[in-house]
Amino acid sequence: MAQTETPIAPAKPKKPKKPPTLINAFQYRLYPTPTQVAKLEHVLNTHCNLYNDALRDRTAEYALTKKSLTYMDQQGMVPGRIRSGDIGTTRNSMVQTIRRIDAAVNGFVKRVVRWRASGSPEGVELGYPESVDLDDFKSVVWSPGEGAKWMPERQRVRITPDVGEIKAVVHRPHQGTIKTITITRRDRRWFVTLTCDLGAIPQYRAGRMIGIDLGVSKLAATDDGHFVENPRFFEDSAPRLEAAQQVMERRKVIPPKVPNRPEINPATGRKWPRYSENYRDAKTAAANIQRDTANRRRDFIRKAVHGLLETRDGLPDPVGILVLEDLQIKQMIMAVNVKMAKEEKARKEAEANGLPIPMAEPGAGKRPRRGMAKALHDAAMGGVHLALTQLAARLGVRVILVNPANTSQRCSRCGGMPEVPKTLDERKHKCAACGYTADRDTNAARNILALGQEMLRQEEADRPRKEAARLRMEAVLLRKEERELAKGVAGLDTPADPAETDDEDGDHADLSVPLRLTAWPIPDPTVMIPIGNHVVRKERMKQLLLI
Ligand SMILES: [Zn+2]
């Protein structure tokens, strides 16, 4: 071909695609001095205001122009907000805070997309990011060397300007390259978290394929009849926690405004507290109970998850492919089910009492399963799901997420649906059609496994088509490159490239085939969300850090 003989101009350097890497977080307890605590509080305050202002700007801009500001647009506001003498606040850390809004808004957009993909069910809260109270604004992120430095040999983290070196307890060394340094305040305790890049993710390992159903009464059930029981840590501590929260409520009295009092307390140089010290003590006591329970629970889950993926009955039994429910879809389905159950109950009650049948109001039940029950429920499933996917990423276990619709109802042997749907209290699956009986959750896990196997079959069947599309795309790009090179050599007035009109070798016919490169095809009824070759995404990791 003529084009290949033309002198080659230096090719435009292609942006190399970064292969996904394994990110891990290492957290250490900090012991700042009282002065440092005051300074860190100040840093949080500055960033909280920045976050709320930037979020407000974004919402206002969208309302006005229907276009969303990006963090690239918004980081322009940072230099104007840096005042000389501002403690511990660098341009870099401020940009990181603004970037967090991006993550929050993107999360919202993703939820909307999934919600639409699952048929826009009513009664689902999609949660647009809201402004944050200073009490709830818990962390600030730095890039290493840009206002924060980790000094493990001195057991310190240094925050500049003006905060100084804070004492840390380095109970184990971190691994990999530090990507971000995060300072977090949690119930008056301070932590530093390093997110570290551990390099290339491990290759998928060989092993058996399992399906796992996540639940509440049993945290996890496998397709071969193994269970992880719910240890009920939360439930056991609930009465204590409730008592502590009642004390907290009792003490939550906003002191009366003193007339003509200056806004700043001259004794402390800070704003007058909104609540009393007694209230804050009660809040800490309640938070301590919550934290202890959560720690015990997390520890339990991590060990259990290791058992699921690594051992069985005390023997090594590696898992190669893990099929799980897509939790976001599952929570949507559950929210809708609960709403429908409530409406059904109201209807039955009305019928029994001879009252007019209530109509489902639009927007009613917008926040189903509110409060403690829902929080417990989501925490239970979310915790196990996260622990499983994180461990899987480290071990090289491939994770497949499937749409959990009907997995608890369908019979895993004959595929039949029961005429009367099982209620949540029915713990046994008993198929009227084929007579198959099993534990409810085992049956669900078998359905989940089957969906995962179906997904793999589909992937295998799609492979030739995808490969062909990829080759066609490459051919198009190659031709484009050649044409540009030819243009560069012959000058700008070159007529249309002969390759475009000359069709004698016939292989150009392929190019007219429309390329399907835009949307990820969502196979129904299963939805596979590729989590970047099973890497736990950075955003997810960040969310985790912000808890
Ligand atoms: Zn059956």
Task: Give me the secondary-structure topology.
Layout: H1 2-5, E1 21-31, H2 34-65, H3 71-74, H4 78-81, H5 91-117, E2 139-142, E3 148-151, E4 156-159, E5 164-169, E6 177-186, E7 189-200, E8 208-214, E9 218-222, E10 227-229, H6 233-251, E11 264-265, E12 270-271, H7 277-310, E13 311-312, E14 315-316, E15 319-325, H8 327-352, H9 371-395, E16 398-402, E17 428-430, E18 437-439, H10 440-490, H11 498-501, H12 538-546
Parallel strand pairs: 8-15, 15-16
Antiparallel strand pairs: 1-5, 1-7, 2-6, 3-4, 4-5, 6-7, 8-9, 9-10, 11-12, 13-14, 17-18
The structure holds zinc ion (ZN).
The site of zinc ion has 8 residues, from loops.
Give an overview of the whole structure:
The structure is a single chain. The chain has twelve helices and 18 strands. The strands form five sheets. It has a seven-stranded antiparallel β-sheet with strand order 2-6-7-1-5-4-3. A five-stranded mixed β-sheet has the order 10-9-8-15-16. Strands 11-12 form a two-stranded antiparallel ribbon. It is of the alpha+beta class and 547 residues long. The longest helix has 51 residues, at 440-490. The protein has a domain at 19-200. Residues 1-7, 360-370 and 492-547 have low confidence and may be disordered. It is globular and about 80 Å long. The structure holds zinc ion (ZN). Residues 411, 413-414, 416, 431, 433-434, 436 line the site of zinc ion (ZN).
